[in-house]
């Protein structure tokens, strides 16, 4: 697989923030080490970042990351080493791992992600097999990924408190790559095997607002460490509940929230001399896959939505109704390559940044969501690892990617806090 | 730095052993994870391997490895990640590291190794400075490595039980890249800072025979796991003490030991249909740098040595007298590139294999020691990481390097046992 060069994507104005991050690298790494002494690292995760040149912030944190197939294959050894560390912490005696992917078996790019994950854990020394929650998978079924890799999906068998496959395969660890949007299946409840990530990391329980509340906390600490305005790395957000897009219930409150947030952003834009129009993103608080999302620049845009827009907003993955949304400050994407908008996604396993890629999309604007249904982005893997080059310019690819890795790890740490706060056994 | 291709170096006969190692990868990785639950991993290390096609074995284990500069720079991120893990275990609160190199400041390739190590720990997020035990370094001294990298060596200052630099730099961790052949300096004794590797890992205390005794033990277990003859991965060895090469004291006993070992090897060669002549290596039990080493094919060769040979054998690094030797089964090197003999060296940090290179030397035979004074080897870094390719031939580079990594980790584990057994505080 050829790895494209990224230089043309790195056109944003030089970030004072990046310089500070590079200069403070020893303090930052020390701070992360201290944090991880007190919080359990999520097993894996990916973070969608936006870089507007004046602001670098996470807009979404995925605890069941797809897209491992988009990472630079040259750096997969980093993922393998991180996987060894992750397994070692959770279950050092593990010999075998059952990977449970999403149910959409027709997305051959997603299947390539599953194959990559299976490969990584195989390289880390585990016997890996794939078990499916999909009721259509009633017998071992071979599927072919976009790149031709073959996968064998097998039906899950619950025996007592253990999850097995039909031939008796009895995994030590069950790894979810399924975000449980449809709820927590009985099959997965009260397992005696190690189940990762925990069930409450799934969208049946998770809320974006929980995450960004935790992220607020993380940013407070980190911004103090770097003596920066936390706003530079943290988008404003607010929650709106009891919405019903069909009956227009809660519309006014939503409009008020949007209005207030736009006002707050305007103050910050004025403070930093930013001339762009502020915008906010409204999205389902429990949801993913870019469904139920709108980008608005004024409160009027959320009032009196037409039927099509209301339908679009009201339902997310697995047909779930949306009654809670997060209203999030929009962060412009000012990275581009060949005039196409590019949004970075950073991947982590255990506490380690293992790589990233850009979602490159030609047909979309800089204030739109790039992770949307039907969206065919071109992945552009990072050409170098997320390690700083202290002799390089603050904005050279290694330093920019290092800064991305730092912000992504802040989101990872926020997820650790979020999972602690929502742990039903705590 | 261009990375040469290695295909021509991989000409040895296909190893049944390599196939077994690849097939048993999940069991092997599980076994290592279990072992590391009970033993502390040495901080770092490198292992000299020999591959004769019929036998793959370590011949030396270095706990103060030089040569990091010879690793493929593309895989340095693996070293950085492993360094983070290593530091995290030993001293998660660490902010700064003092690296103490060897005293030979004129070896510019060694200086490049020191620069690479400093770079790795810098990338891992530590403030790194260099302190010297060399009495000639009385003030901060800039040295230039072979590749032009600049290093600042500074005199050490002992204050109470802490090691510092003159300007007050007070490191959290002191990392030795000096093997203490000259004894343990008072400066390093009873430090309250974390000192790595521990003092008893230095050649003032260490003995090759201690290591290979521990390696015997490791090989017993591992060979049972793989159902192989331990001899395939373990060279015979014996110790001879109370030698005085100058007065020829102990010569007869040495000859007898050599004779017995050659007889044992002959039995094994017959069992496996190997037609080569057995040979043994006689080397100082406490020593390194390829000094005090001879390769012999009959007992007569160690009797009545001429003055030159006796002088060569009697003194190792730092002018120490040799009175104990290890007599070790010689393992042929059947790897070559462009008709030059190639000996693999594998590097590890924490429990991770982070890469390796070949010492390539045109002027030496397949039964000679390749790490000798005045020897100008050409380093040939491994072109891929030491991870298996299960779809590949057992002998393809990734699989061969994986097998090398496995054997190297056995030696690393043996060092862990060795350091436990020789720990003065245990």
Automatic annotation (TrEMBL), chains A, B:
SUPFAM superfamilies: Glutathione synthetase ATP-binding domain-like (SSF56059)
Listed InterPro entries: GshA, GshA_N
EC number: 6.3.2.2
Top EC class, one word: ligase
Keyword GTP-binding (UniProt): no
A GO molecular function held by the record: glutamate-cysteine ligase activity
Domain of life: Bacteria
Annotated protein name in UniProt: Glutamate--cysteine ligase
Protein species of origin: Craterilacuibacter sinensis
Source organism phylogeny: Bacteria, Pseudomonadati, Pseudomonadota, Betaproteobacteria, Neisseriales
């Amino acid at each position: 697989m050829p790895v494209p060069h990224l230089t043309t994507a790195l056109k944003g104005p030089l970030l004072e923030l990046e310089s500070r991050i590079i200069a403070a690298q020893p303090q930052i790494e020390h701070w992360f080490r201290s944090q991880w002494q007190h919080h359990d690292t999520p097993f894996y995760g990916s973070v969608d970042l936006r870089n507007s040149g004046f602001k670098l912030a996470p807009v979404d944190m995925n605890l069941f990351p797809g897209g491992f197939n988009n990472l630079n294959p040259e750096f997969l050894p980093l993922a393998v080493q991180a996987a060894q560390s992750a397994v070692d912490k959770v279950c050092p005696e593990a010999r075998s791992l059952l990977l449970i992917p999403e149910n959409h078996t027709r997305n051959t790019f997603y299947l390539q992600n599953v194959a990559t994950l299976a490969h990584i854990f195989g390289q880390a020394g585990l016997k890996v097999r794939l078990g499916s929650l999909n009721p259509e998978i009633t017998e071992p079924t071979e599927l072919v990924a976009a790149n031709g890799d073959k996968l064998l999906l097998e039906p899950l068998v619950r025996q007592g408190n253990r999850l097995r496959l039909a031939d008796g395969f009895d995994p030590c660890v069950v790894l979810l790559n399924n975000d449980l949007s449809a709820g927590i299946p009985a099959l997965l409840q009260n397992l005696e095997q190690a189940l990762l990530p925990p069930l409450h990391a799934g969208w049946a329980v998770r809320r974006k607002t929980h995450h960004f509340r935790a992220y607020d906390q993380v940013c407070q600490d980190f911004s103090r460490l770097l003596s920066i305005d936390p706003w530079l790395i943290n988008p404003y957000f607010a929650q709106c509940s009891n919405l019903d897009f069909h009956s227009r219930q809660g519309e006014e409150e939503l409009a008020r929230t949007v209005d207030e947030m736009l006002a707050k952003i305007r103050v910050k834009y004025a403070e930093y001399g930013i001339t762009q129009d502020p915008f906010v993103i409204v999205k389902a608080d429990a949801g993913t896959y870019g469904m139920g999302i709108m980008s608005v620049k004024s409160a009027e845009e959320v009032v009196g939505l037409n039927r099509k827009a209301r339908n679009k907003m009201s339902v997310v993955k697995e047909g779930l109704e949306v009654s809670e949304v997060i209203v999030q400050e929009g962060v412009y994407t000012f990275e581009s390559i060949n005039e196409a908008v590019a949004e970075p996604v950073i991947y982590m396993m255990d506490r380690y940044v293992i790589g990233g890629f850009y979602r490159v999309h030609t047909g979309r604007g800089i204030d739109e969501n790039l992770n949307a249904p039907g969206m065919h982005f071109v992945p552009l893997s990072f050409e170098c690892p997320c390690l700083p080059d202290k002799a390089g310019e603050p904005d050279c690819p290694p330093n920019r990617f290092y800064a991305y890795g730092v912000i992504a790890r802040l989101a990872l740490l926020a997820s650790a806090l979020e999972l602690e706060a929502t742990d039903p056994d705590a």
